Amino acid sequence: MKYSPIKGLSRTLLAAALLGTGIISCNTNQNQNVKYATINDVPDKEPEVIEAVLTTPPMVPPPITRKNPAKVIVRLEVTEVVKEIAEGVNYTFWTFGGSVPGKFIRIRQNDDVEFHLMNHPDSKNPHNIDLHAVTGPGGGANASFTAPGHETVFNFKALNPGLYVYHCATAPVGMHIANGMYGLILVEPEGGLPPVDKEYYVMQGDFYTKGKFGEAGLQPFDMEKALDEHPTYVLFNGSVGALTGDNALTAKTGERVRLFVGNGGPSLISSFHAIGEIFDKVYPEGGLNINNNVQTTLIPAGGAAIAEFKVEVPGSLILVDHSLFRTFNKGAMAMLKVEGQENKEVFAGQTSSKIYLPEGANAQEMPSAVKPVASVANNLEQRVNLGKAVYAQNCQACHQAEGQGIAGAFPPLAKSDYLNADVSRAIGVVAHGLEGQIKVNGQVYNSTMPKIKLSDEEIANVLTYVYNNWGNKGGEVTTKDVARIKTTIVH
Ligand SMILES: [Cu+2]
């Protein structure tokens, strides 16, 4: 379906009669700890049709009070937006709903969800969504593959209650996630979660920029750091300071606080901890088991947890990834400001407001790694062989194993007229990356190829490999060619 944001409200309601048929069959699930749908869940009339309320982090949609499952329409729009990742540092985030993490979705067990994914016409890339709450192929990924300016719809039944991550699953998946494409969907169990006073949405993610931590300007994604799993930033809610200072979460003494905490990754796991508080309850891994009196809970990449606690005394709680270099040097810090009466019985000393170190105040330089010496090609055959490995590691995720590309997303390198017409231009593409509109074999692509950090030797090898395969014109690209082009073509 073609999508323009103005017409975004036009809806495709599928026949509600589809509903109700599968509800009893989910009793076949054998998990003993979870209460599954009973006959009472079957509505005696057609189910309600509800438009889901989605919220921007750190806010959470209101608890679900209805007694029966419903048909729920979810509309989520993908946008690619430039925002601050740290003060003075910009980054092009790919988002579900304009924020990192994406909008919070709250539904109820056994709801039938009609999911609309819109990809804004200004997007440069196709996207999709894999919801871990979906039982079905790819969590909906293939069913939701959406080109810029399009809208797709797919349907699923939320069989299992819990707190689930959703994320983009378009190749290269790690890159889409590293650009911020993840969020949380809560499937409330029958009867809902116990009421609390405050609910918040916090999600960790790791980010990889060309420049080092705090380096100003628009920072491109760094594929090499991402492959090495060496993030420049580790963040709660997508930027340094997203949840500190004036942006801190708030509560009053005596209140019960529930944090829905996710970890988008793509790479790191989180040792989630609140300095100055004990989690009375944790639902580990976002399931429905409860663990009591927890200091630090481990949240896997692509996982979540619900942490609950009552705040007893005023002060600032610091939420951290207890892998503490991430906290104090890479941004993984959030705050919950608690106001209210002192309670000397619980805590008699000074409050902990002084332990907050402004991020970056004492950022350290990481020692730079020594690059191993790569093997050098002496003839065309060696170059092709070495290039094959470079291709598998750096190009295949997008351009595919046989150079065939992915229609609408990644242009083919096999029999590419663009590639074969101009060797110097091809060297420039690999050396500098490529953005903007190009035409390959009659098809228009207007997307982004990231700059990949490769040596001149590696660029020569990979292009020689590409030119000597898949029906391309052959020939050799040498290290000298690459060096010459790099200095003449500036992007
Ligand atoms: Cu994506």
Any descriptors?
491 residues, alpha/beta, six-stranded mixed β-sheet, 9 helices, globular, binds copper (II) ion
Task: Please give the alpha-carbon distance between the first and last residues.
Answer: 35 Å
Bound molecules: copper (II) ion
| Low-pLDDT residue intervals, each spanning 5 or more residues | 7-39, 363-371
Radius of gyration: 25 Å
Give the overall silhouette: globular
Major sheet = 6 strands, mixed
Mean pLDDT: 87
Mind explaining what this structure looks like?
The protein is globular and about 80 Å long. Helix 7 (423-432) packs across helix 9 (479-488). The protein has helices at residues 173-178, 223-228, 324-330, 380-394, 396-399, 417-421, 423-432, 456-467, 479-488; strands at residues 49-51, 71-86, 89-96, 105-108, 112-119, 130-131, 150-157, 162-167, 182-188, 198-207, 217-218, 233-236, 249-252, 256-265, 270-275, 279-283, 291-294, 296-299, 303-310, 315-321, 333-339, 434-440, 443-449. 15% of the residues lie in helices and 30% in strands. The strands form five sheets. Strands 1, 2, 3, 5, 7 and 11 form a six-stranded mixed β-sheet that branches. Strands 12-10-14-19-16-17 form a six-stranded mixed β-sheet. A five-stranded mixed β-sheet has the order 13-21-20-15-18, with helices on one face. A hairpin with a 2-residue loop joins strand 2 and strand 3. The longest helix has 15 residues, at 380-394. Mean pLDDT is 87; it is low at 7-39 and 363-371. With 491 residues, it is of the alpha/beta class. It has nine helices and 23 strands. Residues 94, 127, 168, 170, 176, 181 line the site of copper (II) ion (CU).
